[in-house]
Amino acid sequence: EVFRYAVRMGFVKASPMANVERVKVKTAKPRILRLNELRAILAHCPEAHRAFITDLALTGLRKSELFRMRWSWVDFDEKRLLIKEAKTGYQELPLSPRVAEALRALGHGVDELVFPGHYRDKAGKERTDENSKTLSNKRVAIGAALEAAKVDATGVAFHTFRRSLITLLDSLQGVSWGVVRALARHTDTSADMTT
What we know:
Layout: H1 2-9, H2 35-44, H3 50-59, H4 63-68, E1 74-75, E2 80-85, E3 89-94, H5 97-106, E4 118-120, E5 126-128, H6 135-149, H7 158-171, H8 177-184
Helix pairs in contact: 2-6, 3-5, 3-7, 7-8
């Protein structure tokens, strides 16, 4: 753009970029798991990874939130998750019966991490629990769940599950934009529902 502008304005005779071949960049659409794929993943997920995959698929938590989640955030009596965020304090999410059941099966301590592993602290620094499974093991868990469900793993990452849940909720008849936005915890009304 700058060189074309310079030629148009007469600042230069020709653009030095004129002979450079343009590279076409193929931008892949973000992967969205369909409802039947999510159901298959949850139905066929290996038992060892069930709680993690269930939370990942049905809460819409971001990866950082999942790895920072402590048992003190889980309120089984009030059926809610209290997600601690640096700027806004706690935000509340409903705790579905399926997620509650998966979490109860894990057993828990008072203020321990629910899914020990790598996570980032408030300053953005990588932290690891000493007795924990690693982040790569959580990626293995996702791969194992996809393989067991016979779902194509192409383009599937942690954020795929959040994006898929938000997209699914947004497509449901009778679910308002405000409800979806609240569950996604988007503070900006211009936030794209597929992020």
